[in-house]
Amino acid sequence: MSWRIDVAVQTPAHSALGDVLSYASGVRVTPGALVRVPLGRREVLGVAWAAHQEDAGPAAVELKPIGAVLDALAPLDEAWRDLVAFAARYYQRSLGEIALAALPPQLRDLSAVQLARRLKRKRSDSPPGGVSPCAVALSAEQTEALSRFEAEAGPFLLFGSTGSGKTEVYLRAVAALLAREPQAQALVMVPEINLTPQLEARFKERFGADSVVSLHSGMTNPQRLASWLAAHSGAARIVLGTRMAVFASMPALRLIVVDEEHDPSYKQQEGARYSARDLAVWRGRRESAKVILGSATPSLESWHQSRPAAGDDAGGRYVRLSMPSRIGTGALPRVRLVDMNLQPPKTVLSAALLDAIGQRIARGEQSMVFLNRRGYAPVLACADCGWKSECPHCSAYRVFHKIDRTLRCHHCGFTERVPRACPECGNLDIAPVGRGTERLEEHLGELFAAVRRPDGSAVRIARIDADSTRKQGALESQLAAVHSGEVDVLVGTQMIAKGHDFRRITLVAAINPDGALFSGDFRAPERLFSLLMQSAGRAGRDAAYVSAQGATAEMWIQTHHPQHPLFVALKRHDYPAFAQGELEDRAAAGMPPFAFQALLRADARTQEVAQAFLGAANAAADALAGSDQVTRYPAVPLAIQRVANVERAQMLLESASRAVLQRVLAGWQPLLHELRRTPEGKGVIRWLVDVDPHSI
DNA sequence: AGCACGCCGACT
DNA sequence: GTCGGCGTGCTC
Can you give the residue ranges of the Helicase ATP-binding domain (predicted)? Predict the structure, then answer.
């Protein structure tokens, strides 16, 4: 008796190979089993997807025999395979690409024997797990949210302001689950690696170190394999991780938490461009696991999808659980708008803001100033001939980093020492234009050089951004310095606005947030509002500290548009008002969440070649059923049109129906593969489809 | 994606 | 005369 086994292997999307490759086997291989199979001249890891019994008689084609079956490991279950299959289909990628990316990288290199040995070693330690009860009393809002969570099916949108105690709700929900069903598993996702350690600590404290494993790209390969195996075997109760964790194999999954669900990092931006938040909701429904999406500023998609009260059928499918109040007495910080139109021209820091920071210094409190631009200045320019520090490989300026006197391209990494004189005309007068965090740090240093702290010492200014935290452990040590009070004024990018609890900060300032108000990206206001709300949440987290100081926590915003509805809503901490306004605009303009989008992008040596491919692709789509219900916009260059000498162009597709858009995309895929072999496809370096794109 | 094959410039 | 550049093509 012989079998044909269909195996998902890592076939790249461009290869136009089928979703699965078929191999011969003398025995049936269980779907979901990990196998090693020959592919070309090498042997690769694959996941058995289906087994077909071959009729006796001559085989149509001679199949290569399957290699080793890694049967020390339980096969990936059907629910997991369904999730992978759905993600592959929805995001227009191959099955194998998603499946293999979802497995720990080390599994690819391990032989069957090595894996068996590893598993034997693992089994020896026995994890006893005890849930330590929590002494903290719940607020009325938390109690209400939890009881509705227990009573209803969800999915739930936990709309809780910063400091309202969302994490405690997650912990209780997990605790209740494990009390009811000790062998159950919960998946908890956070947007960034930086945020895992403190959450991990809280979960381990509550549920025991052995019950919790982490899964994110900052871990070493052996660590990731160990965590993955613990999840897959069911030994781990709680898996805590970043977006990749949505694909963790968890046979007893009953609960999924997506914290800060609005965060853009849940959308993968390269390779398979999936949204871990959306997949989490899909997975929850498929596996009957309850899903909680938590945020103080939900994505407009989730907000639109949620209904405010029980039994209210208006709105969407999500149950909205609101926790508007901060725990304890800490009031939300007062928002102060500085009208920059009334300031002297070229003001960087208004006098009123400087005064407020000075008062904080005098009282021994901390301030945080953020600016979304790292480096010293975004451009270096020649006053004489107009030369600017363009990157020779990208359509962008190289940023001036004063610290090491370099010009660095933030897109391709091209770095050179700053020229002494203008490379065009030899003029020595080349000057930085605009400012980044480095220059802001320097500027603040000058402004406060003469100021003394209460004990007579000099004011201490620190900066946290991607440059200052490049080294391993640098972020942790810099955060620790802020926590221990070694810093008076902290300067940084949005990195400092997310998640970290700075208890002694009583002032947060956004220096120049206006860029996002009128940018071409329709999601920019949503991101700005969320960022400012989160930043405001950094101030005065420690209510006891703030009131003991007699201080008021404040969020300062310098803007040329103080009447902008975004700021008006922010001033009142009124996310619902902001969301309503944005949703009305989106509805009127026929944009998400009222329409569904996809991008086709092409990269080539020249813009013409890239656009010609998109043009041909557009024409090819005419023939597809449903294409009349999909608006196809003309091909345009990307905002940054050239990166590392590659020209990039894209076209947008939009439809009121997700299903129709999906159907068109699915039908398009083979046509796009064919196009590559036509004259219009020659010279295209790569093309890719981005479903539900985040930035367009 | 890998990893081959395949046809043109600077080296022992 | 070879070593090696990366252009094109294939992988059940």
Answer: 147-316
